[in-house]
Amino acid sequence: MTRIGLLASFVLFLWTGIVAGLTSTLQQVTNFGSNPTNAGMFVYKPTTIKVNPAVIVAIHYCGGSAQAYFTGSPYASLADTYGFIVIYPSSPPRSTTCWDVSSKATLTHNGGGDSNGIANMVAYAISTYKADASHIFVTGTSSGAMMTNVLCATYPEIWRAASVYSGVAAGCFVSSSGAVDAWNSSCAEGQVSQTSSQWASVVHNMFPSYTGPYPPIQEYHGTADTTLFPSNLNEEIKEWSGIFGYNATAPTQVLQNTPLSGYIKSIYGPNLQGISAQGVGHTVPIQGNEDMKWFGFVAGGAAPPPSTTIGSTSTISTTSPPTTTISTSTSVPATTTTTTPPSTGGAAHWDQCGGIGWTGATTCVAPFTCTTLNAYYSQCL
Ligand SMILES: *[C@@H]1O[C@H](CO)[C@@H](O)[C@H](O)[C@H]1NC(C)=O
Ligand SMILES: *[C@@H]1O[C@H](CO)[C@@H](O)[C@H](O)[C@H]1NC(C)=O
């Protein structure tokens, strides 16, 4: 699938993602600091925020915008409930509204790329809104999910935790010619495979002088994703397993039908979870309430372990969110969901063909062989 397909799949969503009943509005911030690639900064600040609020940076997909992600994701509504601030970065003016995750500049700490501009938005929020520097989170969908992995690699010191909806490993979408915002078919189509230690080197090389911890990260991916093929989840897991010292083929826990029916959550250690959404295409719908747990706004997340009272006031009870108003399925881009497994003839090259919980085809079209990558994922190779 090409970038055109990626754009087309979001068109409907752009015009239907209305979030009603918010306490405040989206505001653009100009002059937030050094902005080497001219990215936009948009902020949602609820009328009631905590003293020293937490911040969630929520990054849009290709073809999207800050405004579209604001209306089409649950974070503004969750901000009203929990009293945090949301920053919606908007991609620089280019022919497509994708994020640059391919150039050396963006794949380098303070390298002058898109990632650098987003990091500076956070610095602005900390100094201007007195945000709590120890509770800054990042999340994104598709191109924004790729950028989330890149930001965890290039600015690990900023983030308390991250969640990634249908992305690729940081440094997978690299351009061999150094091009900005380049499409990388071999990564997209699941042909890039590296070991955990190779991926860990890729991450370390983006910020070689850094010796501190990396943020806990949740990686969501659909098994029917034909834009960023499902094996990208495995590469993401290998990458961060390499960083955290986990065994990417031996999750410590596997939870069926978690957090939704047909989703399988594999826990590799306190800092890494992979959530494989069976039969879901590009992209996995945002699980807002799960993010609230993972980020520590609600008790019950397996990781990370921040205190449940984020911010120094406790006027907003952590038990207040009525589940009826914070839907986890509010018009997020769930565009190509399918539950139909490949039919006769077997699965296509690069497709999934087995693993615990898999109900689709278990053979591959010739000449490919169903190869077991781990207990949860076999692929036609
Ligand atoms: C795509 O990314 C891989 C690394 O993931 C790299 O080896 C390859 O050269 C890239 N392709 C292009 C055309 O730049
Ligand atoms: C990782 O887990 C696999 C599967 O359980 C096992 O075969 C392998 O030896 C483990 N690797 C390490 C380095 O412990």
Bound molecules: 2-acetamido-2-deoxy-beta-D-glucopyranose
Tally of alpha and pi helices: 10
Report the sheet-strand fraction. Answer: 15-25%
CATH superfamily of the largest domain: Alpha/Beta hydrolase fold, catalytic domain
Work out the number of β strands: 13
**Cα distance, first to last residue?**
18 Å
Broad shape: globular
Contiguous uncertain segments of 5+ residues: 7-18, 302-344
Q: What portion of residues is helical? A: 10-25%
Organism: Mycena albidolilacea
Enzyme class: hydrolase
Function: Esterase involved in the hydrolysis of xylan, a major structural heterogeneous polysaccharide found in plant biomass representing the second most abundant polysaccharide in the biosphere, after cellulose.
Subcellular location: Secreted
What does this structure look like?
The protein has about 375 residues and is of the alpha/beta class. It has 2 domains: about 5-325, 3-Layer(aba) Sandwich (Rossmann fold); about 340-380. It is about 25% helix and about 15% strand. The protein contains 10 helices and 13 strands. The protein has helices at about 5-10, 10-15, 65-70, 75-80, 115-130, 145-155, 185-190, 195-205, 230-245, 290-295, and strands at about 25-30, 40-45, 55-60, 85-90, 135-140, 160-165, 215-220, 255, 265-270, 270-275, 350-355, 370-375, 375-380. The strands form 2 sheets. It has a 10-stranded mixed β-sheet, with helices on both faces. Strands 11-13-12 form a 3-stranded antiparallel β-sheet, with no helix packed on it. Strand 12 and strand 13 (about 375-380) form a beta hairpin. It binds 2-acetamido-2-deoxy-beta-D-glucopyranose (2 copies). One 2-acetamido-2-deoxy-beta-D-glucopyranose binds near residues 172, 175 and 184.
